[in-house]
Design goal:
Elements (H helix, E strand, L loop, with lengths): L1 E7 L2 H14 L5 E3 L2 E2 L5 H9 L6 E2 L9 H19 L3 E5 L3 H12 L4 E4 L14 H11 L2 E4 L2 H9 L7 E3 L3 H9 L9 H4 L7 E6 L8 H16 L3 E6 L4 H11 L5 E4 L4 H10 L2 E4 L3 H8 L4 E3 L8 H5 L2 E3 L4 H13 L1 H7 L11 H12 L15
Parallel strand pairs: 1-2, 1-3, 1-5, 3-4, 5-6, 6-7, 7-8, 9-10, 9-12, 10-11, 12-13, 13-14
Helix pairs in contact: 1-2, 1-7, 1-16, 3-4, 4-5, 9-10, 9-14
Bound molecules: uridine-diphosphate-N-acetylglucosamine (UD1) and uridine-5'-diphosphate.
Uridine-5'-diphosphate binds next to helix 1, helix 11 and helix 12.
């Protein structure tokens, strides 16, 4: 029996780990000891509830306005006892959060192999996104198995010297989660969403939470939104406000009480994914949305200067607009006024996966532990 310990802590990690954990739990030769750090609390619990994931261990570390040092040290300390007791054969981490980095470091200190889901995404700018670029790189340095979502990510890992036989192109598990969640006949759990007029109004979804956007850049984003709703009477903005106190304060100060701007609590993934499937446009600095919205044929304007997800930019569905207020306004105005430009961007492209990423990862793990002689098929998309 192989013991695998998936460790995750935030909303996006949970969404992207859920299909994999579910699939691992069907394996008879594998025991899955799901562990959450709870770097996020409410936003993590929303995902655990939706996918009915019941962690064996919950480190419950979240503190209001926690610092990066706090997260890193508390995760390291609390995992020490757990890893010593459980002695897993493999620790699985996801993405670029401080939980992913600290958990991989904790595993390394105990000489436990690490599998990295969503490996190899790079901007090659140490401070953008901060601290995620470095979290992902450091996790990659420690990892023994690298599950690259795309060929571009695999190439980045090869360039850094990761051996070919330790990388598998799998697609992104977020597409597995999305395909399991979006339904044409979906009814929203959040009642206000059922009252949105998707036919006569253009619904713009906005999310922002990146640390490098705190302060002036985030204020610019919110100011641009006030201009957009004033200029375009058929636009409604839906902004599920991230629970980070810095984001909440700025959003409510600048956008509170604005007509046709709906500041709402973070949505459960079912509501959010189905809202994305029905919206006109997405404005975001999130990583995951750059993968999901293209799959749903929704144009994305990215509120950042760089991206570690270039594939959908190349495909034309995602555009980088940064955080200058005028630039944001112009980019949105173009997509609202120019039907041809909008149609060019609103193509469903899916460079990030085909819904079978979890299956490929499980096959690669089975091969690593010699439970099968078949290395498994890679995800073949290249853009
Ligand atoms: C974290 C990740 C980021 C990821 C994002 C996804 C790091 C350093 N950052 O950023 O990579 O993109 O999650 O959302 O790993 N809070 C709550 N309840 C929650 C979640 C957060 O109250 O459920 C508040 C708390 O005050 C917390 C603060 O938000 O201290 C910040 O949370 P933290 O995980 O440190 O940073 P995020 O900005 O959420
Ligand atoms: N999401 C959600 N509810 C929301 C906003 C986002 O479920 O109110 C989902 C979204 O579909 C995506 C993930 O959360 O899968 C993105 O998380 P976030 O923006 O917090 O982090 P990032 O992707 O930037 O790391």
């Amino acid at each position: 029996m192989i013991k695998i310990m998936p460790i995750f802590g935030t909303r996006p990690e949970a969404i992207k780990m859920a299909p994999l954990v579910k699939r691992l739990q069907t394996e008879r030769q594998i025991r899955t000891v799901t562990t959450v750090t709870a770097q996020h609390r409410e936003m993590l619990d929303q995902v655990l509830n939706l996918f009915q994931l019941k962690p064996v261990y919950d480190l419950d570390i979240m503190e209001p306005a926690q610092t990066l040092t706090q997260i890193t040290t508390v995760v390291l300390q609390r995992l020490e006892a757990l890893i010593t007791r459980e002695k897993p054969d493999l620790v699985l981490v996801q993405g670029d959060t401080t939980t992913a980095f600290a958990a991989s470091l904790a595993a390394f200190y105990h000489k436990i192999p690490v599998g990295h889901v969503e490996a190899g995404l790079r901007t090659d700018d140490k401070y953008a996104p901060f601290p995620e670029e470095m979290n992902r790189k450091l996790t990659g340095c420690i990892a023994d198995l690298h599950f690259a979502p795309t060929l571009t990510a695999k190439k980045a890992l090869r360039k850094e010297g990761v051996p070919e036989d330790r990388i598998m192109v799998t697609g992104n598990t977020v597409i597995d989660a999305l395909l399991q969640t979006v339904k044409p006949t979906y009814t929203f759990a959040e009642p206000s969403l059922n009252h949105l007029d998707f036919l006569r109004r253009k619904i713009i979804i906005v999310t922002t939470h990146r640390r490098e956007n705190f302060g002036k850049p985030m204020e610019n984003i919110f100011q641009a939104l006030t201009t957009i709703v004033k200029e375009f009477p058929d636009v409604e903005v839906v902004l599920p406000v991230h629970l980070n106190p810095q984001v909440r304060a700025a959003a409510h100060r600048i956008l509170g009480g604005q007509e046709r701007v709906h500041l709402i609590a973070p949505l459960a993934y079912g509501d959010f994914a189905n809202l994305m499937a029905r919206c006109y446009l997405v404005l975001t600095d999130s990583g995951g949305l750059q993968e999901e919205a293209p799959a749903l044929g929704r144009p994305v304007l990215v509120l950042r200067e760089t991206t570690e997800r270039p594939e959908a930019v190349v495909a034309g569905t995602v555009k980088m607009v940064g955080t200058d207020g005028d630039r944001i306004f112009q980019a949105v105005a173009t997509l609202l006024r120019n039907v041809e430009e909008y149609s060019r961007m609103a193509n469903a492209v899916n460079p990030y996966g085909d819904g079978k990423a979890a299956e490929r990862i499980v096959q690669a793990i089975r091969y690593f532990f010699k439970l099968t002689t078949q290395p498994g098929e890679e995800y073949g998309s290249e853009l």
